[in-house]
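With this grant's support, we have paired protein sequences with backbone structure tokens. One protein thus recorded is set out beneath this paragraph:

_____
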Amino acid sequence: MFKTLEANGQMTQKDIIRETILPSRTVRYALSRLKEEKILLERFYFPDSRQSLYEIKGQVSNALTA
């Protein structure tokens, strides 16, 4: 899942599930672990406020400097 986020950039939980073909429970657990380790950044997803956008922290700084 980390590699999927790294390759695709910002994704919602549904996008991650669709892309990785992992069960939703597994994705939720992995997202929570990555957030605990401060590897993942969670952002508000404006088109659908029920979801969040997730991205790897290192990619955020790269995107802002580019």
Summary: Residues 61-66 have pLDDT under 50 and may be disordered. The chain has four helices and three strands. The chain has one domain: 2-58.
